[in-house]
Amino acid sequence: MLVQKQLILTESKLFLREPAAVFFATVLPATLLLVLGGSIPGFRDADPSMGGERVIDTQLPGMMVLLSVVTLALSTLPSALVAYREKGVLRRMSTTPVRPSALLVAQIVINAVVAVLSTALTLSLGHIVLGVPIPRQLAAFAGVFLLGSVAMFAVGLCLAAVSPNSRVVQGAGAAVMFPLLFLGGMWLPRELMPSALRVVSDITPTGAFGQALRDTMAGHAPALSHLAILLGWTLVAGFAATRMFRWE
Questions:
Q1: Contact 186, 67 (CB under 8 A)
Q2: What beta strand segments (E) does the chain contain?
Q3: CA-based R_g, the chain, Å
Q4: Contact predicate 72/78, CB 8 Å
Q5: How crowded is residue 143: how many other Cβ atoms within 10 Å of its Cβ?
Q6: What's the total number of domains in the chain?
Q7: Verdict on whether the full-model pTM lies above 0.90
Q8: 149-188 burial, b if ≥16 CB within 10 A, otherwise e?
Q9: Residues above pLDDT 90, as percent of the chain
Q10: What is the pLDDT along the chain (248 residues), one digit of tens a residue?
Q11: At how many degrees (to 10) do helices 166-183 and 77-86 cross?
């Protein structure tokens, strides 16, 4: 346990030495929320297409939370693990008392903590500066955030499992991340999607995650179908990552 804590501390220091990772995972979502929410007047007006909600009530903050988690899960986490494997770090660790799985745990813990801090920062600044409501179903929001984050990290571990080197994992991460963000409602709210596209969105981890976040922020219970989708992605992607992951 002591070794695991020391490894987490060491990896945390290394994470903080990567300005790009810190910026895109923590600073960018909060900044986008403040800039877009403060500069586009229409975002502060009730939108009939969204059931009378304002964009800054649930859509914009929900998407910024989604952006932070997806960036960590599909870019930061798999890139770090593949780089360690490519450099032989994981192979060398297997010959020491510290098992490679300890490094995997440390990376997951660090990225999960960063996701929580980024979410807290985004929602807090949004509430203070723009009057964005705190999630009305806070406990349900926390549960959805946990389940959605686990599902996205499982997908990220699959990327790390099948990517042979850093160049491939970066390209694959981008190729997966941006379509998933679109289907999650990042650039086009799900209410405005054609019905066929919304069906596709519903079965993706980001579509289910983003809508469940928005529902709990608006004070509604998340749809059971979205929770089931997230659980399914967690189990399938987690199983696949476990079977395919290579330490060297």
A1: yes
A2: none
A3: 18
A4: no
A5: 15
A6: 1
A7: yes
A8: bbbbbbbbbbbbbbbeebeebbebbeebbeebbbbbbbee
A9: 63
A10: 666 788 888 888 888 888 888 888 889 999 999 999 988 888 888 778 777 788 888 999 999 999 999 999 999 999 999 998 888 877 777 666 667 678 888 899 999 999 999 999 999 999 999 999 999 889 999 999 999 999 999 999 999 999 988 899 999 999 999 999 999 999 999 989 999 999 999 999 999 999 999 999 999 999 999 999 999 999 999 999 989 888 77
A11: 170
The predicted-structure confidence for 128-146, as pLDDT tens digits, reads as follows 999 999 998 899 999 999 9
- All residues at 6 or more sequence positions from 144 whose CB lies less than 8 Å from its CB, including other chains: 209, 212, 213, 215, 216, 222, 227, 230
Q: What is the rounded distance in angstroms from the CA atom of residue 175 to the CA atom of residue 75?
A: 11
Tokens representing residue 184 in the block: 């999650």
Q: 224 is written with which tokens?
A: 């059971």
CA distance 78 to 159: 6
Q: Which helix (H) or strand (E) holds 197?
A: helix 195-202
Six token digits for residue 148: 């959605």
Enumerate the β-bridge partners of residue 54: 46
Backbone angles phi, psi at 52, to 5 degrees: 90, 0
**Full DSSP string of 75-86:** IIHHHHHHHHHH
Return the closest-CA partner of residue 25 out of 147, 188, 177: 177
Domain that holds residue 86: 2-244
